[in-house]
């Protein structure tokens, strides 16, 4: 969901070995364990929700309980989602992992800087800034002027980011100077085991520069709360930290030998703690002075996992909006095989954007014409120099966009925050978002078409509108819909704790969203033909 700042108030990729693959090669030895730690307990007891459990899918080397799910017998993608979340600590890692999976699935890598050669039946992908991605599959029966069927989501989440000069020292502590990104619930970042991840520009031996991703998996940082003995009224008056002075994480105590780390590059030496630069250089396998630039997020190190008495929840950071991004990505891959595209007249597309949480106004955000430029280039390539009048405009009029961003599930402790008749529940399917003031792009027509797809495949849907006495957030839906006039529906997977460092959603809703998105790609062409509005 969009950042609080956007609320309207009324009045390089590399091959990554998946943890699940490692688990399959090196299975755990059996040992005595409590019944609730035994995955067979939940499989063999019919009175408890049956789950397919597998070894934990973690982003670090620390052992965790066996509560993560791999692909189950019913085609569940929950295990793959946990892998993706644990790999994708930042928008850069999320994009790189999506790129890796698409290329592994047979998508051809394009560059926006090169001339494109496309053909019907082809599958293609390109990235921008390694934080924005567009992938598409062209139907075998595509003809110029036919539409695009798009699912759009975003790769970024609220977080803390290092300031350009991050070195900070107070009371003999080495600390990291950070800035807030998006509308996070910042109090949830206190007393968490944190680290850093992001991208680094490294000097190469030949004078060129390399773009590398980095992730320090061990707990490195912590933002400690003030003891209640020194803040006696905190439970009565509320915890109200100053985001400039109270949110800087601890890195280390200031020891004399820390200064022994020698950095010749004066900019890095003055800007960042030598100890932090040494840790980054160790992770990257380079010299400290080879690090020319860094762009790092503060990240929570706790792995994504299943939770709840019946393992029916997903506990994770960055569910908003990597859960939507992955469901869209997986649906495109699984609906774009040769047989799937043989009778398709349209182009199936996924667009993942950065910077949604801060307004989308960036070169890699939905406010840039990235997707529409790609659409025009695709049409130009496939037109074979026989471009007829208004071919691009006609293609847009036949296109349909699903703006997928997480939705607010009803909170059992704060039910009054939802409109009485629009209280989305977990495990009940995708939430279609409505707003009369166009904070969401859904219309009566687009909601009907999207629900009709679900109806054909026996998939549940829910509806959401915000209370009249509350402000309404927004998504990339209205930005893209108004940018070029593409029909759009706003929807999302219901969740709790949105914008917390640790969020919650229902396990079943992941598979429902995946199946709904896949059904959209497979069914929408036939559904759309049955309704003529203009």
From TrEMBL:
<keyword id="KW-0482">Metalloprotease</keyword>
<keyword id="KW-0479">Metal-binding</keyword>
<keyword id="KW-0378">Hydrolase</keyword>
<keyword id="KW-0645">Protease</keyword>
<protein>
    <recommendedName>
        <fullName>aspartyl aminopeptidase</fullName>
        <ecNumber>3.4.11.21</ecNumber>
    </recommendedName>
</protein>
<dbReference type="GO" id="GO:0004177">
    <property type="term" value="F:aminopeptidase activity"/>
</dbReference>
<keyword id="KW-0031">Aminopeptidase</keyword>
<dbReference type="GO" id="GO:0008270">
    <property type="term" value="F:zinc ion binding"/>
</dbReference>
<dbReference type="GO" id="GO:0005737">
    <property type="term" value="C:cytoplasm"/>
</dbReference>
<dbReference type="InterPro" id="IPR023358">
    <property type="entry name" value="Peptidase_M18_dom2"/>
</dbReference>
<comment type="similarity">
    <text>Belongs to the peptidase M18 family.</text>
</comment>
<dbReference type="GO" id="GO:0006508">
    <property type="term" value="P:proteolysis"/>
</dbReference>
<dbReference type="GO" id="GO:0008237">
    <property type="term" value="F:metallopeptidase activity"/>
</dbReference>
<keyword id="KW-0862">Zinc</keyword>
<dbReference type="Pfam" id="PF02127">
    <property type="entry name" value="Peptidase_M18"/>
</dbReference>
<dbReference type="InterPro" id="IPR001948">
    <property type="entry name" value="Peptidase_M18"/>
</dbReference>
